[in-house]
Backbone:
């Protein structure tokens, strides 16, 4: 793609106006959208104590299944949404997604009378809506920022990882005053309305657009293809399946911690601790939201400089260490508050790195569809991270030690694969393409 001159770069503003045609505004709108859907994943653990009280006699793994279903519906329908977004544009799908997330929590808080009802409202409706918004905004950032793909994807994904840090304590307080169901309904309505407003702003850049004055350069650290692979072409590439396997492996530890934090605190014998008058779960979840957000920005920026695969290798190895350390802090509230945020400081980056490398390896044009297919790995990982981890923990008297050992091993294996398998595979293919051109 040739670099655009100033006049060509203004094409976006000519078509969309000075607000929607500004790529910074597009980034901010995507970030806000991510912030308001972050609670659907990260606040789930705050609702589980109330659910256990209301649905007396329901085994905890059945409640944890709500979280797994949410992740499944957030990820597995996403390839179809990505294809539709790339073909018909972002606004329509974003509006649909915002309506679905609104209904998911509103109906879950007002009409649900059983765990099965929450499978439908929280799991299916909110899950599909959140998935549409997630893939639309991340792919949009990749398209608007080819010059800073890792940073832009990281900033956008930071909204999903860190947005909950702004709201987890208020949601916890709302649950305390209104009960879990009414709190869910109120927050679902507010979040859905804000997401809908952001949907009206979002646009894809015009065909052939590039930032003013930017010229694609050959980088020794980042390999970027000049070919825009369709989703059908992407599916026959071995590097796609290697990325998929790695995504499944590194996603498990953080998802398991997110969905089961209340039960993990119970298994580590710290669940009754208060920190500054706030429950240790809500306080720690807020801290992990902050580090989760910063992780995506920090590692995304690092990857722009040192390469995606090199960054993956380092980040995944660090994650393995902190996942293992969780197994060593039983009965210590201080270490619980200190170690858990570091777990997310080296976990949240997967949502920046995998989206950015998708644009690098398969091209930006069909990024919504291609990353949508890769993002389904999160859904597969959630089967172990939510329901599966809860079942394994139940077999060991409620201890999550064994699931954490498995997650740490997966992180270490993914770090090795990133450097010794993914890096040479990707670079060999792109080098071959360059010779042909």
Residues:
């Amino acid at each position: 793609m040739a670099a655009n001159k100033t006049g060509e770069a203004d094409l976006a503003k000519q078509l969309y106006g000075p607000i929607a045609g500004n790529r910074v505004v597009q980034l901010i709108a995507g970030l806000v959208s991510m912030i308001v859907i972050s609670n659907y994943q990260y606040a789930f653990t705050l609702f589980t104590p109330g659910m256990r009280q209301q649905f007396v006699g329901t085994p905890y793994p059945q409640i944890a299944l709500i979280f797994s279903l949410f992740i499944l519906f957030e990820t597995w329908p996403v390839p179809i949404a990505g294809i539709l977004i790339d073909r018909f544009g972002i606004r329509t799908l974003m509006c649909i997604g915002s309506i679905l997330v609104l209904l998911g929590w509103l109906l879950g808080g007002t009409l649900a009378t059983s765990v099965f009802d929450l499978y439908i409202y929280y799991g299916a409706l909110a899950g599909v809506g959140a998935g549409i918004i997630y893939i639309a905004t991340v792919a949009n950032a990749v398209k608007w920022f080819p010059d800073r793909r890792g940073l832009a994807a990281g900033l956008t994904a930071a909204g999903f990882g860190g947005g909950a840090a702004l709201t987890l304590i208020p949601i916890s307080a709302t649950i305390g005053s209104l009960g879990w169901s009414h709190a869910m309904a109120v927050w679902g309505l507010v979040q859905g309305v804000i997401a809908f407003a952001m949907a009206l702003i979002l646009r894809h850049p015009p065909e052939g657009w590039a930032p003013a004055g930017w010229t694609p350069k050959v980088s020794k650290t980042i390999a970027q293809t000049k070919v825009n692979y369709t989703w059908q072409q992407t599916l026959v590439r071995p590097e796609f399946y290697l990325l998929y396997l790695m995504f499944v492996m590194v996603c498990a530890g953080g998802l398991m911690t997110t969905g089961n934090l209340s039960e993990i605190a119970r298994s580590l014998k710290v669940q009754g601790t208060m920190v500054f008058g706030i429950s240790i779960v809500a306080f720690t979840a807020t801290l992990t939201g902050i580090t989760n957000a910063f992780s995506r920005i920090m590692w995304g920026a690092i990857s722009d400089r040192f390469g995606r695969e090199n960054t993956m290798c380092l980040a995944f190895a660090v994650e393995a260490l902190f996942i293992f350390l969780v197994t060593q802090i039983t009965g210590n509230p201080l270490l619980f508050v200190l170690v858990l945020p570091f777990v997310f400081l080296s976990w949240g980056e997967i949502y920046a790195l995998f989206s950015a490398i998708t644009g690098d390896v398969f091209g930006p044009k069909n990024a919504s569809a291609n990353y949508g297919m890769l993002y389904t790995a999160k859904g597969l990982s959630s089967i172990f991270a939510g329901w599966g981890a809860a079942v394994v923990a139940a077999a060991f008297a409620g201890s999550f030690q064994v699931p954490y050992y498995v997650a740490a091993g997966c992180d270490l294996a993914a770090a090795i694969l990133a450097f010794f398998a993914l890096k040479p595979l990707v670079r060999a293919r792109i080098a071959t393409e360059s010779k042909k051109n």
User: Anything to note?
Assistant: The chain has one domain: 14-208+225-436. The radius of gyration is 21 Å. The longest strand covers residues 274-275.
